[in-house]
Amino acid sequence: MTLLDKTQQRPRINIFKLNKVYYFKHFFDDPELFRELEPYYEKASYRFKMASAGARNKVMKLLDRNGFDPNIIEDAAPYTVEIGKYQNYGELLKNSIESYPLRDKVVLVMKDLVWVEQALAMGATSLK
After folding, report:
1. Direct distance between the N- and C-terminal alpha carbons of the chain, in angstroms, rounded to an integer
2. Contact between 68 and 33 (Cβ < 8 Å)
3. Which pLDDT does position 127 carry in this prediction?
4. Radius of gyration of the chain measured on its C-alpha atoms
5. Does the N terminus or the C terminus of the chain have fewer Cβ atoms within 10 A?
6. How far apart are CA 40 and CA 48, in angstroms?
7. What is the pLDDT of residue 128?
8. pTM value?
9. Sign of the C-alpha dihedral, residues 67, 32, 48, 57?
10. Are 15 and 73 within 8 A, CB to CB?
11. How far apart are CA 7 and CA 126, in angstroms?
């Protein structure tokens, strides 16, 4: 195990609280870490789900020990965008925590603010 330089930026992982459940999306290139997190992985949605605060705390400690900066997001509004359902939004869908149809739009909760900016550049509008 290598020690992180205190000046080195740790990769942030946003953990969203949506309807009393916690979610995050991240690609782990460390197979051992992924195996430890696999009980929380929802393969169909390509995201991790923790149904309780206890599970969330366990996952946050594991992420912290492995060099990540877990961050709880309780207000998803700044991360939420909508885009026309006939627009090309596949890349946005891959980088969203949650999505659902709303009339002629698709509402997406993006995994971080970088992807919110990307969504806006692709024609989405912010819901905040």
Report:
1. 42
2. no
3. 85
4. 15
5. N
6. 5
7. 72
8. 0.89
9. negative
10. yes
11. 33
